[in-house]
Automatic annotation (TrEMBL):
It is an enzyme of class 3 (hydrolase). Belongs to the metallo-dependent hydrolases superfamily. DHOase family. Class I DHOase subfamily. The keyword Secreted does not apply. Its EC number is 3.5.2.3. Residues 51-425 form the Amidohydrolase-related domain. Its cofactor is Zn(2+). CDD domains: DHOase_IIb (cd01318). Catalyzes the reversible cyclization of carbamoyl aspartate to dihydroorotate. This is Dihydroorotase. It comes from Sungkyunkwania multivorans. The keyword Hydrolase applies. The lineage of its organism: Bacteria, Pseudomonadati, Bacteroidota, Flavobacteriia, Flavobacteriales. Keywords: Hydrolase, Metal-binding.
């Protein structure tokens, strides 16, 4: 593994931007300072006005392996993530087989250890009948527990209130939840099918997976967490109404209930359905401008703690189906960071806040060991970004196995030029390294 000295970078870390050098030795950040001198065997990289940020930690991805590998694999999507400045990911349990037993969890870790370009962990999945397996999970070695309280596949919808309370009461894992009320969605869907059949116009997606469905589910989950003392993290918020459920008057380290927003809910609105169609069909649905504005407000005032992707690729053929058969989700890991930097260029958010929400806060929230910050002794998961090197997303530069992106045709002003994974230069000016240096995440719990 080569050693590197990054010279004269604009280092973005812990609320500050400072011009300095960063020395990488082996897997770790060895020194941070100015005018660092090193031996001849250390490769120097001159930042020349670029920003150096800690690699993003994406706390919600679907890499589709095992069982759904016609859509994506850990190998393909982790490489796309590295090119996008995401150096660590936490993958979800709704694969095939589902990650609801310790054996299936370890099978996924074994795949990632052989094929992942980025650092990795996995969520263990909850069902109505696997509490005994949940209680076997070691919270020091697994990211947490994922519960689908709506919009699930297979038997992963946890809709037994007694079981849900028992899980919240007995596990000491961090519980992450998908919140949409299934009964509300089913009733809404039936109404639109009665009018349109299966070919419901996509513009009605936010009415079917409505504000009311989201709020009803998320408010119930939060109330249950308060009653039981469970540690709760609410994934992919999408509505203005839900923002009243979260607080910003205490530090993240002291919060028992935390919140995430995803790139697509911060970028798109229901006005984009006409052009993008099912390519922006997600669950929860992309909703109106008022909801998007409220998400941005909550993100900036720290009611929302984390920015993630919910990267969930499907093939173009699958997406081309009529509404009721077109799956929800889309690929995002390659473009999430530059999309947020585009928001910086638009004056919506500071660079320091982007780093807080994509790197620092996921590390704090999940208690990830020695990642998410630029600190001496921490793993060298680092990203160099040129803020003024514009490029346009096209099929020719996509790395997703599914071969498409909702951002095709979008021009981003900033470009990621270098990504380091555990001190290894894994991506440089459009080229991915063949060496795989991703490691299993560990947690300080």
């Amino acid at each position: 593994m080569g050693n590197h000295l990054i010279k004269n970078a604009k280092v973005v870390n812990e609320g500050r931007v400072e011009q300095c050098d960063v020395l990488i030795q082996g897997k770790y950040i060895k020194r941070i300072g100015t005018d660092l001198k090193v031996d001849d065997d250390i490769q120097e990289i001159y930042a020349n006005g670029k920003y150096l940020v800690p690699g993003a930690i994406d706390d919600q991805v679907h890499f589709r392996e095992p069982g759904l590998t016609h859509k994506a694999t850990i190998a393909t999507e982790s490489r796309a993530a590295v090119a996008g400045g995401i150096t660590s990911f936490i993958e979800m349990p709704n694969t095939n087989p589902q990650t609801v037993t310790i054996g299936h969890l370890e099978d996924k870790f074994a795949i990632a250890e052989k094929t992942s370009a980025a650092n990795f962990s996995f969520m263990f999945g909850g069902t109505n009948d696997n509490l005994k397996e949940i209680l076997k999970v070691d919270k020091r070695n697994v990211a947490g527990l994922k519960l689908f309280l709506g919009s699930s596949t297979g038997n992963m919808l946890v809709d037994d209130e007694k079981v849900l309370r028992e899980i919240f009461s007995k596990t000491d894992l961090l519980i992450s939840v998908h919140c949409e009320d299934e009964a509300t969605i089913r009733a809404n869907t039936a109404k639109y099918i009665a009018q349109y059949g299966d070919d419901i116009p996509i513009r009605f997606h936010p009415q079917i997976r409505s504000v009311e469905a989201c709020y009803l589910s998320s408010s119930r989950a939060i109330q249950l967490a308060k009653e039981t003392g469970a540690r709760l993290h609410v994934f992919h918020l999408s509505t203005a109404k839900e923002m009243e459920l979260f607080r910003n008057d205490i530090p993240l380290e002291k919060k028992k209930i935390t919140a995430e927003a995803c790139i697509h809910h911060l970028w798109f609105t229901d006005a984009d359905y006409e052009e993008k169609g099912t390519h922006i069909k997600w669950n929860p649905a992309v909703k109106g401008q008022q909801d998007k504005d409220a998400l941005w407000e909550a993100l900036l005032d720290d009611r929302i703690d984390v920015i993630a992707t919910d990267h969930a690729p499907h093939t173009l053929g699958e997406k081309a189906n009529v509404y009721t058969k077109a799956p929800s989700g889309g690929p995002l890991v390659q473009h999430a960071m530059v999309a947020m930097w585009e928001a910086y260029h638009q004056g919506k958010i500071s660079i320091e806040k982007i780093v807080q929400k994509m790197s620092h806060n996921p590390a704090i929230l999940f208690q990830v060991e020695k990642r998410g910050f630029i600190r001496e002794g921490y793993f060298a998961d680092l990203v160099l970004i040129d803020p003024d090197d514009s490029w346009t997303v096209s099929k020719d530069n996509l790395l997703y196995k599914c071969g498409w992106s909702p951002f095709e045709g979008t021009t981003f002003q900033s470009k990621i030029t270098h990504t380091f994974i555990n001190g290894h230069l894994a991506y440089h000016n459009g080229q991915l390294s063949d060496e795989l240096k991703g490691m299993r995440l560990t947690f300080d719990r």
